[in-house]
Amino acid sequence: MTRRQLPKWSELQPLLQPKPLRLDPTARRLEDALTVADLRRVAKRRTPRSVFDYTDGAAEGEVTLRRARRLFRDLELRPSVLHDVSHVDTTTQYLGRPSALPFGFAPTGFTRMMHHEGERAVVRVAERHGIPYALSTMGTTSIEDVAAAAPDARKWFQLYVWKDRAAGEDLMARAKEAGYEALMLTVDVPVAGARLRDARNGFSIPPALTLKTVVDAGMHPAWWMNLLTTEPLQFASLSSWGGTVADLLDKLFDPTMTIADLEWLRASWDGPLIIKGVQTVEDARRVTDAGADAVVLSNHGGRQLDKAPVPLRLLPDVVEAVGDRTEVWVDTGITHGSDVVAALALGARATLVGRAYLYGLMAGGERGVDRTVQILQREVRRTMALLGVNDVASLGPQHVRLP
């Protein structure tokens, strides 16, 4: 028979430790977010639907994005046991220079649309954590202002080739003058993809005031207040624009560009050149032969051609074809630290994340981006330790099996 007794206060006290009260609502939200998926849920609550959908959505039926995420979800990680993993080193290299973590911040357009702190917040987080940040041609903070916000960050400038080549030359000159380390040429946007969520939401830059947006404003007053009381939302590299994103891309971008035009690019930019948007082994060879210092396997986060190749699936073949001549990076679908580790194991030199940090930005500004890095860093370290490796160089194809 069980003997019962009243507990003493000294026995109860350790069990009754209240959780510290957080008066700061942003701090509370971010502390409760344990994954990027948690940050996504917060972002969805805190931003207007058209803004969230612009970030979250992809092209047409969004098959490409779902396939990329499904591959990361369904792959098998293969641990090796009985190794000393008391210290895990996450350092890797981009363009021959060390990065504290094996992921960097991909270029994203319209970043101040997601949160008024925008690109300045993102680059400051990159600086603190010792990872690279790529500023988009379609950014909403100028090349010079981003450089001033984080003078010690590793900064790259992402370029779309415009029909007005002189404008592109001017942007490259400004980036070089401001101390940007590398140029990232995005090559998968000869025309705009069909982003149906944006079309259905009437998404435009700047936001158009319709009955729908006015109603949405009532549901997201903080977002609208920040938009209306800070510097006007506009493209930093354009004088002005009013219209849809697709209209803008089709008006500005040059669909006639070919591999031969890289010679024009090299005449204006003598630093490291990254080619982003490669989706076949054959194209990886072509841009490597043309002098790319790094190749990013990417389908633009599924935002251009629906049913395009999944970069992770393509990765081993590209590494085998050109990995001895150029760095091979990968993006699209990365939402967890184990995704980063799997890509490294399959041969990627490094990875880029985009939506992940934008969810953090929408959830809590600069602190939200910082929370994204904390989450991914913790997941990378834990996954490496559980796989039995203590540095990035020890990861290999023996640690992952694709379905």
UniProtKB/TrEMBL annotation:
For this UniProt entry, the molecular function terms from Gene Ontology, in alphabetical order, are:
FMN binding; L-lactate dehydrogenase (cytochrome) activity
- E.C. number(s) listed in UniProt: 1.1.2.3
Q: Can you name the source organism?
A: Cellulomonas oligotrophica
Identify the residues that bind FMN: P107, T108, G109, S136, Q158, T186, K276, S298, G354, R355
Q: Which residues bind glyoxylate?
A: Y54, Y160, R195, H300, R303
| Pfam families given in the database record | FMN_dh
Q: Which gene encodes it?
A: lldD
Which residue numbers delimit the FMN hydroxy acid dehydrogenase domain? Answer: 28-403
Organism's domain of life? Bacteria
Q: Which CDD domains match?
A: alpha_hydroxyacid_oxid_FMN
Keywords (alphabetical) are: Flavoprotein, FMN, Oxidoreductase
This protein is called Alpha-hydroxy-acid oxidizing enzyme
